[in-house]
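Q: Sequence in, structure out?
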Amino acid sequence: MAAPGYGKRSVPSQLQCTGNDFAHLPTREASNATFLDQLPDGADISVETLATVLPYGQCALRTALNRLQAAGHL
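A: Exactly. Output:
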């Protein structure tokens, strides 16, 4: 878990994720978004932590997270 005040936070009115929510994204970004969506609130989503559990390096994760943010998913 992340330090209090940091980490994953869900939007109060967010609907349950469906298979089509991230279909418009490239494969890496879609798989990262799906993984992040399944994490509980407060989970540590730092690049360093994600690199230990996902099959991508820190640079690839940073790029993917930036693209997810630009697409409005973060």
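DSSP finds three helices and no strands in the chain.
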